[in-house]
Amino acid sequence: MSAQGKAEQDFQQEYQKAIERIRSMPDGAVGWVLKFLQMELEALTPTEWTLVAFEVAAFVDETGDRYGGMVAPESGWSVEGVPNAKNYQTIQLELYWHEGYTAFTFPQMTLVVVSPGEGSDEAGTIFVSAKRKAKEFEYRFVHLLAQSGDYIRRCPECAKIYLAIRRDQLYCQPRCQNRVAARKWREAQKTGERKESHRGTKRRKG
């Protein structure tokens, strides 16, 4: 096998592993995105960054049917600008939570309309043409947010971004809910003790 062939084989193997890592997440692609948004990318080692880069590409390519349809990249596989995309999306989430809406701008994307095949009565196809993988990634995130945004929340106890399983779910996990309940109980106990102490002082004075 030639050196190029070996490189392509290694690439495909790593790409497939990235797909499997995303699929194995408890909440699938949404769970992977929430994990990615909370990564400290600057602290990753070169090896860890390579794994994340493959996952970014796998997320974009594997979720097209669910989050935005087909994309035709104008350039080769690249994750240039992904850290900025991550920070941008985190900011947009904050706006979405507070205002109920958020806006995304894609100056580097083009819509391409392709006519249906000869003899076909089906409508033509619209492709999104992205100059960079990071823009493709943002485009998928927009559609993911539209579908799952009401269930993407920040835990008021530990500040973790999580995917709720119920509309009335406030905390990311029972541990946080129990911690808050225990704190409220202790505060109520202290308040009760202070009131009892105050009443006892009054009785002694009387």
In short:
With 206 residues, the protein is mainly α. The protein is 55% helix and 9% strand. The strands form two sheets. A two-stranded antiparallel ribbon has the order 1-2. It has a two-stranded antiparallel ribbon with strand order 3-4.
Shape: elongated
Uncertain segments of ≥5 residues (pLDDT<50)? none
Overall structural domain count: 2
Approximate helicity band: 55-70%
Output the radius of gyration. Answer: 25 Å
Proportion of strand residues: 5-15%
Structural class of the secondary structure composition?
A: mainly alpha
Count of alpha and pi helical runs: 6
| Overall pLDDT score | 82
What's the order of the H and E elements? HHHHEEHEEH
Number of distinct beta strands? 4
Q: Give the termini separation.
A: 99 Å
| Biggest β-sheet strands, sense, barrel | 2 strands, antiparallel
Spatial order of strands in the largest sheet? 1-2
